[in-house]
Amino acid sequence: MAISEFEAQVFQKVHPKEYQQRFLAQAIRTDGRAFDQFRNTKITKGGIETAHGSSTVRIGRTTVVCGIKGEVCEPRLISAAYPQAGSRGFIVPSVKLTSISSSKFLQGGATNQISQVLSEQVYRLLFTSDSNSKHAQNDNLEDFSTLLDQLCIAKDKAVWVLYADLVCINYDGNILDAVLLALINALKDVKLPVATFDEELGVVFCGNDGAGASASASASVGDSNDGQKVSLQLKSNLYPTSFCVFSSGENKCLLVDPTELEEDSCDGSISLVLDDSGAIVNIWKLGDGVGTDELELCYERALQRKKELASML
Is the pTM of this model over 0.90? Predict the structure, then answer.
């Protein structure tokens, strides 16, 4: 006996995990995709005229917009926490989950925590700890070390700080992949005014749309260089691929590019980030673990996803 659409919706709300399991038992997902099938992905560069760089990423219905704004800062203001501050600039990612993107993200503590966790994940991808500082640069990500070197205007005098606001305007799962892709693509779109530091005046001169003045008058910003712009040079892209894990006894089912419904009822998740060479840059795992065989399968599918994303970035 066939059930009505209303009855199916009620069953989904009351027993979300069993609802998923019944589909998975038939080797299909609730949205009709195969286990290894990604949703339509669209990556757009630019679009925000007031930002120094911007990007929009759509994965299915999940949509994230990234806007990057650069400001000039004196390294000494933050050198206590960052030993290499004198010769490198900074990237400050901030993920924002708006109530307009999903009713689950109403203003409050839980939403703020999720945003902070995502911001921290993005930050840890770019930076990792070593023996000197918990904020030191990850040697495995040489490209980002080089990128931060490009943000130095004058050693120990002035550097660029890039504030990356990553705003989710529509949420349907797999937010981490969308956030990382939006950030990388926006960084490739960044065009900063050519900036020079005048030793005698203690002033940074840049284009007419240059960054705001530093907190100290000794590193204020002037207008010069006729509006010239310089782009950042990224030697490698980053390619994220996320999975959710459904466990049934000893059997585990891996679903790529999970939707919100799948994430809410899964037993665990895993995300892999690859570079241009196909090497694993980072792995995040939550909930039920996966064995060696499952991890190898994740890597194979991440390589396939990398090839697909490489044609878009």
Answer: no
- In the chain, domain spans: 41-231
Tens digit of pLDDT for each residue in 49-101?
A: 999 999 999 999 999 999 999 999 887 765 555 556 567 888 899 999 988 88
Q: What is the CATH number of domain 41-231?
A: 3.30.230.70
Q: Which of 247, 308, 307, 253 has its CA nearest to residue 34? A: 253
d(CA 96, CA 167): 5
Q: What is the mean pLDDT of residues 126-144?
A: 47
Long-range (24+ apart) CB contacts under 8 A made by 38-46 are 38/256, 38/257, 38/305, 38/308, 39/257, 39/259, 41/308, 41/309, 41/312, 42/312, 43/181, 43/185, 43/309, 43/312, 43/313, 45/185, 45/186, 45/188, 45/189, 46/189
- What confidence tens digit (pLDDT) does each residue in 176-211 have? 999 999 999 999 999 998 888 777 777 887 765 444
Dihedral, CA of residue 154, residue 156, residue 158 and residue 163, to nearest 10: 120
**Rounded CA gap, 272 and 299, in Å?**
7
Residue 259 has pLDDT above 60, yes or no: yes
d(CA 258, CA 47): 27
